[in-house]
Amino acid sequence: MGIDKTLVRSLSLFDKTSDSDLDKLLDSAVSRRIPQGQAVFEQGGLATHFYLLLHGRLKVVQVTADGQQIIVRMVHPGDLFGFAKALQRDDYPGTAIAAAESVVLVWMTDMWQLFVEQNPALAIGAMKTIGQRLEEAHTRIREMSTQEVERRVAHVVLRLIKQAGKKEDNGIRIDFQISRQDIAEMTGTTLHTVSRILSAWETKGLVEGGRQKLLVLDPTRLSQLADGDRE
Prior knowledge:
Layout: H1 5-9, H2 19-27, E1 30-34, E2 39-41, E3 49-55, E4 58-63, E5 69-75, E6 80-81, E7 95-98, E8 102-108, H3 112-117, H4 120-146, H5 149-164, E9 165-168, E10 171-174, H6 180-187, H7 191-204, E11 207-210, E12 213-216, H8 219-226
Antiparallel strand pairs: 1-8, 2-7, 3-6, 3-8, 4-5, 4-7, 9-10, 10-12, 11-12
Helix pairs in contact: 5-6, 5-8, 6-7
């Protein structure tokens, strides 16, 4: 499919990229539409390409040595992902799956060095992305090591509405399909536990659920729960 230059230009990653440099980047890229549920690449596969999400949402999942599947991160519009080369890897450490119909730009991995050398702003953007991922990973490790499950679930939901929240009359809706199983995989717990917690929150008027939908009715109270306030 063709590349919409105006959509690319609107991303903060390209704020300082000249029109001529942007044209060169796009000339070497291809655009792909990823249907919901389809994988962009799979864990352990040879890292032949790297990507930029233009539209939609992706979840990156990993299967641990004992067979447990966890969601390690969400990919949002404007995010670079799959750049294993920058991490000194030849394979993809996880599987990227479209949580909603998505559009990505794709470059060959061999272009990564040229990509960052000729575009300092993009190199800085990539470094920021890596830093944010490390910070989020450390935060999640700390939460799983020190916090009870309800607080971990609250933190995940708050992060999701910050990254992908759409304001509505009565709350903030996560703007892509999110299941209770997804939340369980983000928090290192079970579907049963997440279902019990969300059902209790619905009773208290904190959230409103639905089939793979979640509307946060009271983000302030949810923040208090995340901080450990049970009052």
